[in-house]
Every structure is written in structure tokens, then in C-alpha cells.
User: Fold these one by one.
Assistant:
Number 1:
Amino acid sequence: MKKQVFAILGFILLLQTVAYPQNNGNEIKNTISKLKTFLTDHITEKAYLQFDKPCYAAGDTVYFKAYVTMGERHELSIISNVLHVDLINTNNKVDQSIKLQLDSGLAWGDFALPDSLPKGNYRVRAYTQWMKNEGETAFFYKTIEVGSIANLKIPESMVRKSSPTLSGKADAQFFPEGGSLVAGIRSKVAFKAIGTNGSAINVKGVVVDNAEKEVTSFASVHLGMGYFYLNPEEGKTYKAKLSYADGTQTVIDLPAPDAKGLVLRVNNDSIPKASVRIMANNAYYLENKGKAYTVVIYSGGTATTVTCKLDSPMITMDILKRRLHTGIATVTLFSPDAQPLCERLLFVQNYDKVSLGINSDKITYARREKVNIKLNALNRAGNAAAGHFSMSVTDESKVPEDEWNENTIISNLLLTSDLKGYVEQPNYYFADTSAAARKNLDVLMLTQGYRRFEWKKVLDSTYPPIAYQAEKGLEISGMVKNLSDKTIAGSAITLLPVKGGPMLSSVTDAKGIFHFTNLAFMDTTHFALSAVNAKGKNSTKITYFNDKPEPVVAGSQLQVTSMVSDTTMAAYLENSKMERDEFAKYGDIKGKMLKEVKIKAPKEPAQRSQSYIAEFAADQVIHGKDILYGGPLSVRLTGLVHHVHFVPSGGNSLIPINNITMLPMEILIDGEPGKIDDVSTDAVETVEVLQPPNSYVYGQDGLNGVLVITTKPRTLASQDIPSIGVLPIAPMGFYRAREFYSPKYDNTSWTIKRQDLRSTIFWKPEIKTDKDGNASFEYFNADGTGTYKIIIEGIDDKGNLGRQVYRYKVE
């Protein structure tokens, strides 16, 4: 058997040819041209979020850093300036939604979890408008487990709800390498078994032919996955008889073998190279002997081609992986008329990530001692890497995490974001560098597919056109009608910031719709919309299109398994309960002492304020129509009021606590102090939230913020009043992330009475290394002893990813 060896030494952007016959060469050039057009017109964006810790309790704050990259080489994106981040509850509905202003692909934010939040698995979703062109599969998802300390009993209350059932029985799928079984050619067949809860399940079984003769056996070796070899015979069919770990059994038909065909096999066991083998059965070889076939290797946004003649039933070639980009590569075999016949994925690990060196001034520290950390980032060549990084420090005894289950910037951007479906234990394939782990990663490549593009759609140019344009800023839009409810085209409309700023003008289109685009404003900002008709009169009706988060597709990226063990969550919740008890006893970590603030403005009672445009420019306005009727008002406001949670204060009364100052807020009802639950939910016109410094207009009573509740006038009906000519609005702008609070114990003005039981010791979302690749920072330990864990992740200006874990002791 003749063996041809092709060593792929060059890697030129989008096209490299080797000895094309004329006709085949033109066809392949056309194929590569179409791929190039697709990649140019469909530049991808990916989002990744690093979180401060793996689990939370109701009442906690979830901190995160967002990285948005573009293209196949993961460079920080300049496409989009807006990132949408949603907190999705256990009922698959959006609980909270914020917009972050991206600066060269970077942003950070947080979610305040209400005390009343039910325990369970929540998901954080992040996406740009541009990602919507690829559908929901392009969005970032992360499952976070939230527990509750309400009525906490350890361990009895830690009985977890059973995972939702996705199907009535366990299932398995079989995937012949290259795509097809061919009679007379021994082929690798990979498989993956999924249990009723959507997670991997162990399976074993046998393969029998149509005469019920056993031909081979198999068993899963990692997360329900494994493989076996099968040499199908012409005219025979095969089926697998499976036995699952839960005791159930089933029979599944394997794909029918082709009577004539080719098989593409890739051996990726070697670190420096991958060996490709093309095998034709006798019938196919005799029919196509001497014809030219082309192998296309696609990696990191580029394609290399190698053409060879079928002058032997078996052709082999080697791919030098150092010429490829780290991540998923595809090897596709094309026919003489440039049609894809077989395809195989392989993972390339070139160890070209950013090397992060973390050094502390000590190996062992005392409680509350200052820690000095120095970071040094180097690229593969050993040169300084200028980049952006984020860092979390946790008390590992309070929030331990299974290393294999971690979702990291490397596992996400290089692996899971390019595969179909949910990948369990993604960091296993990077944390474990053994030969067994590499083999299991190769089986993953055989079973979970590739979502970046499909050759058939590329060649037929059937990909849908770009429907969603990248957002460069915020948008305010709506519709203008006359008093007869007919839309007005060409109506002049003005957008006026209430607190001052430039006035913007626009004109409605043929459907009466207006758009103000590329805006940039923070939090809830108050505007007034004014519209006139063609005669310059304001006898118009204005409708504002209230911005809503993207709907959650049922079952989208659904992960039903918990990333945190029952034991870990129980310990975390017990610590959280102790921390809340310490707060109730001593106040926050700073103690009860507040720095005196002198306010020159006299204290005046609040007047009944106008809806949307607060007399004192509230930070947030909630309207009565947005509050569910029935039950205490404090319960209905939980989760609606930003940066505020409600705690008991004797009897059944609840008081609002400012999450920023961690102290009670002032409550004013129609200008007079009162209790929040003295107001019926159906009597509320507006609830205005004033945070410092805006709340300082109320003097000392406003130091910790004010809730201004305005009730409806008795003559006012509960339905909305149509806006004629002028419409005040308060759209949500870019979210202003809160600064993570870290105590400074070398400051003698701070009390030490309260135990410092923090689980997140330090969170710094933006660390920028200098020209020498260096950065430094400091913080103070808490009272917990044991191992503290530092995680630093990020990306340099060349798109190289970096992650490092560092641990030290506290005694």
C-alpha cells in the first residue's frame, strides 16, 4: 500500500495550495473564497464573565468582570459598545437586567440578590446585539447556585430539589469518526450517554449485527463518553444494546454503513503533530482512482489546503500543530468537485497562553494582616505582556470549588463557546495534562460538534443576512401618533435631558417611529420627549418603547447539575448566617461610626413629586403599575429597588437597608416619615430611590439614602394617563458598578469588635499591566484561617489568554 506523507509547514492567511490540478484548483479556490467572504461578513463576538466566587446566598452581591472578544484569535472587541447581562431565575425568567458600557471589550458589574430570593440554580446570561445574529447559542451562560439562610438548619435543610427531567429516559448517541461508516473499513465510533436530568451517565453495552451476532463491546470512560472500533461488513446493519448506570436498558440502531466511500481518521495523540489518514474501500477506490482530493485545515480564522491524488486506497499526512492556533481546528476532506465528504475536529494546545507570575510578600499571614501581591505577565516568547486582568481572592475553606468544574476564560473561549450543547467539567481538559485527559478531550471533539459554521451553508451562501447591527450606544425610540391614533410621518421630536445637557432632535419615519441612537448615560436618567405635528402644534400622542431584555428561549443552554456540593453550600450558608448575625449585633465591618457630613441646605419635607421627573432627581423611579398588588409593599419592592434589601425590624415590619452603606434608609410617605408597609400596594403612584449624594438634600436623614413614596391622588385613576405633546421618561442607562468594599485594618478609626467572616476577601475587576508586564495591589485578610485562593484571569493586547491560581495560608 502506497503511503504519501505531506508535512504542512506553512500557514498563510486563508489560502495555501499544494499542486492543484487545474479544475480541482479552481473549485477549491472558489470554496476558500466563499469561506473568506463568510468570515469577513460574520465576524464573531464572544463574551466571558469571571465571578468573584462560585456560590452565593440570598442577600449577597454577585460581582463579575466581562471580557468581550472578536474573531477567532480572541482579540478584545471593538465591534460592540453595549453588553447586556441578565440574571435568570429558576423559572427561566429574567429577574434582573443591566447594560454595561464596553470599553475595548471590557466592563464589570454586579447583581444584588434580594434576601427573599428562593434558593436554587440561577443563570447569568451575557450577550451583545451583534451576537444575536448567531442566535442564543452564541450567548454566554453561567450557572450560579444561590442558597438561603432563612430558617437555616444544618444539615437538615440542605435537602436539594431534584433536578428537572428533560426526557423520560436516558439516551445515547453514536458518532462515526469523519461522519460515516463505510463497509470494509475499520472505523472509530464515539458515543455519549445522557441521563434523564441532562447530565452524563455511565453506560456499557455490546454491538450486534443484524443476525444478532456480537461483534464488539464498549463502556464509557469519562462523563458518559467513550469509543470503540467497528469493521462493518457490506450488506449488514448494526445496533447497540446499552445498559445504563441507573439499571435501564435500551437498543439503538447504529448508522447504516455506506457500500462505497471514504473514511477520514485523525490521530491527535502526539503533542507536536496530528496524523491524518484517508481510507477508501475497494469499490470506491476502483471508481475514483487517480482523482484529486483536497484536505482543508481550518484553525483560528485561517484555512490551509493540501491536495493529493487517490492513487492508493490509503493516504496519510501529518499536520504540524505548532502552525495552528490554540483551540478547535477542523479537518475537512473535499471531493474532486469541491464538495465536503468527511470532517473531523481536533483540539490544538500550543501552550501559547500568557504566563502569569503571582508573588506575595509572605507565604503565611495572620488574620487581618495586609497582603501585598505582585503580578508579572509574560507572553510565550518571554516578553512583557501588556493586558487587562481581573482578580478574586476567596477563603477556600468557606467556598471550595471542584477544579474540574470551574468555567475559566481559557476553557470558555477556547473550548465550550465553539461546541454544541453543555460541556461538563470544562476545566478538566486543561487542569489535567495527562495522556488520558487528552484522549478524553479528543472523544469530546468527536461527540459534541462545532457550531462556528457549516460547509453546506457556506458553499450555498444560505446563511441569513446580518439582522442585528452592533450597538455603539444606548437607544431611545418610540412612536408618534395624532389624536386620532394615526401615526405621523415626519414629525419633529426632541429629546431633552431634565438635569441639563444637549438637546437632541429627530424626525419620525414613514411609520411614525423615531430613534435616538448612540447615547451614553448612566443609571436611571430623566428625559422629556416633545413632539409636534406638521403644523408645529404639539397635539400629538407619544409612545415610548420601553426597553426589555431578550426573552429566554425555553431550555436554552440549560444546565441542571449543581456546580457546588451540598456540603460546600451548607458550610457557606452557615458562614453567611453568622456574618448576618454579626451585622445585626455590631453593624457593618466599619462599625457604627460614620464620618460627619455637614449639609448646608436646610431640611425640607418632600412634596408630592411628578412621575418620572423627581423634584430631587431620584436615582431610580418605580411606578405603581409596575408593582404587583396584594401583600406587604416591602415584599413587592424586593428585587425592584436597586441596591436595597429589606430586613425585619420587630414584629412583621420590614425596613430597607442600603446595600452600599449597609444601614437603614429614611422612608418618606407623601413628605412625612412613615413605615413602608403602612402603604397599600395599589395606592402607590411612585417610589423614588435617592442614593447619596442626591439624598443629602434631606440633611442628616439622607446620609444612607431615602425612599420617597408618593401615593395616588384620590381623583387619579389607576390606568396610565395619555401623554399629549410631552412625555417624561426615565430609561435605564449604563449600569454603574459598585466598588467592592475591602476593610483597611491599619486605620485605627475602624472598629474590630465584629468578626470578619467574608468569603470573598478581595475583588478587583480591572488590573492593567504596564509596559514591563507588572502590576501590584494590596488588601487585608479576614478572620478566617486556612487557605486563601487567588484567581487571576485576563487577556493581553494580542488576544492571548492567561489564568493563574495562587494559594497562601492564614493562621
Number 2:
Amino acid sequence: MRYKTIILELLHQRPQVHEQLRKDRKLLSTMERYARELKTSQEAWKQVLNQAKPGSDQNQIASEALEMALKEFQDRLRSESPRDGSETLFLDAAMLFIRHPTPRA
């Protein structure tokens, strides 16, 4: 549930995107999809951090992993933002990028 709250807050920070999704009746499905992506990313980061820091506190690992996943998600959204201000292209590009993340080392 907290993933949806986080994603909803990020969408609220982009009012034009939020409003367009709401008008198109895609807000809920997009929020749910992004929340799943954020959760998947956090899980992947937890695995990486558990390997890098064996024996670390699992709550601390989960917190760090969420921070990293969230930063990664926000960076992707920002990096895919179009120069002409077209929010529809921004959202489409962000979704494409999130569906096909770059491999981690």
C-alpha cells in the first residue's frame, strides 16, 4: 500500500500528468503499475544490498533499497521529460523506460 501512496505523491508533483491521467481514467491503473515497478525495483536493490552488506539489519537494508529505488524512479521520470513540455510524451517515455530498466552491475 505504501508504494501506491508514494507514486500518487510523485504524480501529484506533476499536476499536468496527474490531471491528464485522471481525465483519461488511467490514474488508478498507472499508479498501480508504477507502484509494482517501484516494489520490484526495491526488491532488486534489497538483493544487491544484502550481497554487498551481509549480516546487515534487514530494516536498514529495506529502507536503503527503497531510497535507491525511489531515486532511480524519479531520475528516470526526469530524464525522460520532453523539452517541449508535452506531458503525454513524458508519461509514455517514462512508462517505456520503467518497463525496460537498464541492467545493474
Number 3:
Amino acid sequence: MLVARPASAVEPHRSMATLSSSNGLGALVWDATQYKITEFLEHPYQAANASTTSRNFAYDSYPGIRIGTTGTWLNTIAPTLIEYVPATGIIHSQRSFQGLLIDEYDFAPMSLAENASVMLVKVTQNGSAGPIDVYSIFNYQVGSGNPPGTDSETAYYDSTLDAYYETGPASVAMAFTSIAPSTHHGCTPNNPFGLLNSGSNLQDDSGSGGATTGAVEGFQTSMGTLAAGASAWTGWVTALSPTANGQSAIQTAKTWLAGRTADKVLSDEEAAWASWVTPAPAGANALEAALQQQAQVLLKMGQVTESGAANGQILAAVTPGEWNITWVRDMAYSTVALVKSGHYAEAKAALAFQMGASVGGYESYLGGSGSGTGVPYQISVCRYYGDGSEWSDSNTDGPNIEFDGFGLFLWALDEYVAASGDTASLDAWWPTIKPKVADVLVHLQEPTGMISPDSSIWEVHWDGQQRHFTYTTAAAANGLCSASRLATKAGDSTSSTTYMTQGSMARDALVSLLRGPSGAFGQSTEAIATGSDWLDASPIEAVNWGLIDPMKHTAQASMSAMLAGLVPPSGRGFMRDQTGQYYDSQEWVFIDLRSERAFELGGNTALSTSLFAWNTDQGAENFNELSELHDATTADYAGAAPMVGFGSGAYVIALADRGTTVTPSCGTFAVDPGVDAGVDAGADGGGFPVFDAAFPTGDATTPKHDGGGVKADGGGESSADAGATHDASVSKDSGRTGAPGTDAGESAGSSGGCAVSMSKDADGWWSAVSLIALGLVLRRKRS
């Protein structure tokens, strides 16, 4: 099959429309198209338990300015700059207006132990405008329902603390205060919105005079007439009191402010972030370093800091990303990223959260190899509610029961203990980890070495949909060999031997049982048996985890099959599999970032560099936030964003690992059939080439990166037969569900391996002829 590549790959571009800030107690969203705060969440996570979802109390909030007698709300003035203050959770927008330079800063303060946000405004005189007054408006909703309505809201002013409190049927209080004493204050019925528009002062209202519909509050600061080049500051704090005691929340905020000026509040927040964020790895260029450090910030903002059982969990996304839920899988990658960036305290908190979580409701599903009897376990089979209890979403095919999480947890713990030297925590946890994590994997392991069928990474649910997923067995192999090292450190030599033996069995099962006819990994034994659409990108982790030799046949076949069969029409990155469903067929940022490491290890540094640079450039265009998906055609951000483990975490890991060798997780690589066994000749895996083609690099404009001569915004190969549909016979799940309680060289040798013969057309784009046994990897239905 001759595969024509697109005339050009999509270029990096902005499509993200929001910026987020969180201190782990709540989260806010600043809309970059409406220029205002549009979310202020009750909790950073989506659902506290099966019956309680977090409420968004913000309708909108933003500042305004009056010059002389003419007032303008700033959400009507398009900023000339929107960004995060580099390596912080501080959202910065800048506007030029009638001779003034206006800087706005919005953030959830990391050092304030409250669900709170800060809004600051700096005005600089670059002309002759004056006199100047700056206003704020707080349009929050605390009525009945979820999301809360505007019914029966009451506002009242506290002159002692220069604060407004708003209460209602939501049984909370939203509280607002001015950092410096306000010049005027006002609330419904004298709505600040209309008063500024008319050029009037706020009316110093004592309150709403009782319950009303849609209470709104605001403050006014008079700056006078500024001299040329002079600046003035003002700012406000918003806090949520879950007990409806707004005064208590403001008193806490005032104690935290400690009389600081608005500019000092900002500089202190910047300094706190600077002391926490660690330098990017040596060799990172400017764009990579900026994205890596902002990725650290997203990891921090994605970790819940509430006291009690919720503490330490790391969400898969920060709101407005819909996956602001804690998955075991995503949290494992986040935890490893925290370890690799030197944040051991946060990594430990994530591990401790899981050790203290309330789980066990799905024990009957952990029957293991023909035993039919479940066993107690400690790591969730899917995800967690905000309160630390287990949560597995269900649909008509039953719940998601995912065994890969046990291996992923052990991997993350191994990385943490090895880097931090914290054997004290390991000793404390080992009496639980051994029987309820590591031994569970042994119980689930079949005589073949594979792990029993599960829902795995793509969450296909149960009731006949579970399969022997390659990713799960790979995670188990790596996890059990990690458990062997942990057992040794815990003084449990007998278990150490057992886990290394069982981990090696799982490692070997990958190459003996989970490869397709081409020698490439398949999604599962069941998918391979169907004879079509069995290719999946997730098993590439077997290379990254040091389970198989990256230079030999299985790794090379898998990577070449991905290039031939999993690149979307955009010409960028990789889809997750061939099932043809929408979610599966988009470009997956997580897959891109894990694949670039495998391609580097496999000798294709040109492609690895190009793929990493594409995601770096795309992130740089989008506020250094990474998304779950890129649209398969346009490469616009899609799915949840900003993504934490599958975005920022994967990026931090990729940059940390770049240029390093891989250590075999189980002591040695798996014996590669047809190579080590002597069936195929040649160090490259029996005639399967070490793929040396980079993604196409587009035009000859100056590279955005200095990555060793490879154009950093280089593109990618399109999928074979990009317009075709697929047999949807493998995965039934269209994606994650979030609502609580719902749900190229010579042909292959005698091994029958796959080869992809590469040629370059006149425009510099790659074509591929796939010579795959039985034509299974690229078999498609035409629409």
C-alpha cells in the first residue's frame, strides 16, 4: 500500500482559551476570550463523593477603570498580552488604554490556607490621563442548586475589615475584601456594574437590605492623577467560607496579608514559586525550559492540599479540564515527574494518599488466574473521589476494573524511594504494600506470565470487554521488578526473589504472547486474534520501562508500525490505536511524549527530536499548558486541558530522561524471538530497520529550537489511508467518563517480521510501503 503524506503538516498555533490557577484548596479559571474570571470551584476536584459534585460559584469577576468621569470595565478591552508569569500560577494580562498601561494579575495564593483568589491591578501613566479610579466587581452565585442560582442572596458590608460577605441557599459565604482601604464600596441594589458605566462612584452600601436575586459587590480605589511614568497598585482578595462564616475567612486572609501592599503580595507570590520550581535539566533550550518549569507548576496546582483523606491526591487535569479527577494511572506519571524534578515531599504525599485511601469495593473482580476468588487490595481499580474513597465509573458494560494501576504504583514508589532515600516510609508502608499491592499482581498473573484480563489504560469496561492488555502486563512486569527492589530495601529477601521471578515472567510474556504477525506489539491477545485493527501505541512503554531491547526486532517493529498506522491526518504525533472511534483517533499528547523517548532509545533521534519539538512548540503557543488531545485534523487542543499526569507529568519525565540510557527493569531485557534465539540474523532485529526517518520538517524557515540541526517545528507523518474508517472491534469506550456514579529498509527475514520501505518524494515528504504479514497492521475499510 503506497501511503501519500500530506502536502504540509499543521503548524503550532494557539487554540487554548483559558488559564487556570489553584492552590490545591480550590481552583479558578480566567477566560482568555472574555478576559475575566469565569470559574471559582468549591474544591479543586470534580466530586467529593458519589453524591456531591463541586460547585462553581463564579459567574464572572473582573476589574474596571475610570479616567476622569468615563468608566470602562476591563473585560471590554482586549489585552495585548495574556500569559502566566513564567514558572508560576499567576495569570497576567496587560492592556494599553488611553495612555495608560494596565497590568492585571489573578491567582490562587499558594501560601494562604484558604480556597481563595487574588486580583491585582497596576496602572502606569504613559500619557496624560487622569484622575484615575480602579474598580472591581464580584458576581458570584450562592443560590440553590448546582450550579448555584442567584435566588435569595444576601450581601452585607463589614466596615471593620472593609469586606463584603454574600450568603444564600448554597450554605456557604463568598467573602471579598480590599487589600488597601477602599475609597468606596458598593453592592446590589446599587450594582457596581452600572455605576462605573455611568462614571459614578460606588455608593458605600451597607448591604443588599435582605435577600435579593443576583447580589453583586465591588470596591473602588482612587489613584488620583499619576505623573508621567508613575505607577499605582490596588487589589482584592476573594475567599470561600464553607461554613457561611465570611468574617472568619476574611480574618484569615487579613492575617495572611499582614499589611502588605498589592505589589508586595505579587512579589512574594513570585518569590515563593521561584523557591519551589527547580531548574530544567541541563541541555534544555529556552522554550523547553519554560514549558518544563510551567509543567512543574501544573503538577503542583493539580495536587489537592485539603486536610484529611483528600490530601496529596493529584488530579488528571486542572479545571476547566473535565478530568479534574484522581486516576491511579495519571497520578503515577505525575508522581514520577515530581520525583524527577526534585519535589520529594509532593511525591510522598501522593503515595501516602493512596496508602490511606478507602478502597475494596471491587474485590470480587480480582479473581486472578482461574481462582474465582478476589483478594484484599489497597490501590483503586480505577480512580478516587475527592474524599479519598474508591470510584470506578460504570456504563452498560459494567465498571472499569484496571489492573495496571498496581504496577504503576509500585513503579512510582520505586522511583521515589530510590531518589529520596526515604526507606522509613517504605518500612511503614511495606506491611500493606506486600499483601495488598505486589501480591495482588502475583495473584492476578496467569501461568503464561500475562496478567488476567482487565479494562486497562483505555478503560474498555467489563462484562466481556476486558482483555489481556499488553499495557497492563508491561506495567505489571515493571511494577513487580520494582517491588523486588523495594522488598530488598525493606529487608524482605524472600519476596524480592519472588517478585523478580514473576516480573520476569510478565516481561517475557510480552514478546512471546502479545505481538502481532509483524512482530509489533498488539493491544491485547484478543485484539490480535481478530485479525484487524490490533495496533496500539501504549505498549511502547515496554521500551521506556526497560523491558525489551529498544534496538531489537520487537521494539523496532512496534515503532515502525506506529509510524505506518497511527499518525493522524494532521501529520503530527500519534493516535492511541486503530479502532477508529473518535477519542482513540485523535492525536494523544501523552502518547507523543512517551513515544519520543522510545524512538530516541531505538536510534531514531531525528524523529524523537522532531516529535518532542512539536509538542514543545504547541505548548509554547498555548500558555505552556498541555492538552489531553490534539484534533486529528487541525491539531487544535481537544479533550481535557490543562492535563497534568498525561500532559505536564509526561513532559517533565521526557525531558529528564532525554539523552540517558535505559536500565533493564528486571535485570535483563526479554529474549527477543527471532533475534536472541537466532532465527533472524542481524543486530537490528532480523532485517527490521532502525527507522531513520524524521517527521517532515515543512518549509525552510528558521527553526524555533536549536535541537541539533533538526527543525524544531518539524511535522509528522499522516496515518495510512487517513480518510478510512476502522473496524471498531477492540475498544468499546469512547473516552473517560466523569459524572459521579455514571458512567525503513529491507523486507523482514524468516520471522515474518514487518518492514517499512521509506522513500522521499519531490516535496520532501515521506511515503511508506508496508510489507506486513497478512496485511493486518494497516488493513482498513474504505468509507
Number 4:
Amino acid sequence: MPLFDQLYNFAHWLAQNPGEAEDLVQETYVKALKSFSSFQPNTNFRAWMYRILRNTFLTSRTGLKASSTVSLEDEEEGGLEIPASTGTPESIFIDRAHEHLLQGAIEQLPLHFREVLLLCDVEEMSYREISEALSVPIGTVMSRLSRARKALREILQQKTRG
């Protein structure tokens, strides 16, 4: 399935729930297949799929209500994870602490900031692609991205101070 991993990643960040993310991606593919005749050739397929996913999320139970933050520790299942790196236990611990800190800070961002930040910095979409996916002007994408990065810096500074 084209774009499956990227769509699931984005859905998981939006819904903050693995099961809900799977449902959103599945529903996105169903909607895309049903309306594929409306896809215009020579347009951005990736942006079209992300737009369907986002609209599906916004009309879902999760998207309509204020999303609650879910602790990442609650999602961990199974046994111990063996690190792939050859770092020391201390360096691995510090890396994971930084990762959890960053993920927690991103989850605190308002949805409209979080989605622009993730599409740009994680999914590496261009401003034009993000604009098409979210159905907003490029200027809005740039403005939201700038504000999202600023808010993320402020959240991280607060968390590291106290």
C-alpha cells in the first residue's frame, strides 16, 4: 500500500492512540478508493491522501473532541527492548529520556501546530505539499510552522528548567 507507514505515523500523532490510528488509515484508504475517480492526474497524490486522512480524523470521534494526552509509557507492551546501538547504558538512557521529552512536548502542541510540524519535520513534506494536504495557503503553513517551533522550544525550555 503506498504511503502506509507515513500515513499511520501521522494518524498516530493526530489520534494519539494506535488502534484509532489504524482505523483512520484503513478508512482513509477506503475513502481514497471510493473517490479515486475524483483524483486529478498530475496533482500531488501524497498531499491528496494526507488531506483525506486529516479530514477523516477531524470528523472522527477523536478529532471532534479535545484530544487528551496519553502517556507513552502506557502504550509500551511486551518485554524489554534491546537497543540497536552500541552506546553505553547511560548514553542510551539519556537518548531515550530526550526522545520522551520531545514526544511529550509535541503532544502538548495544539493540533493545527502539531500537524504542520509533523508533516514538515517528520514526513519531510514541502510547504506546497502541506498546503495542499491541509487546504490552507502556503503563508499559513509557514506561519503555523514558525509558531509551532517557537511553542515547542518554550515547552522544552519549561520542562528542562523544572
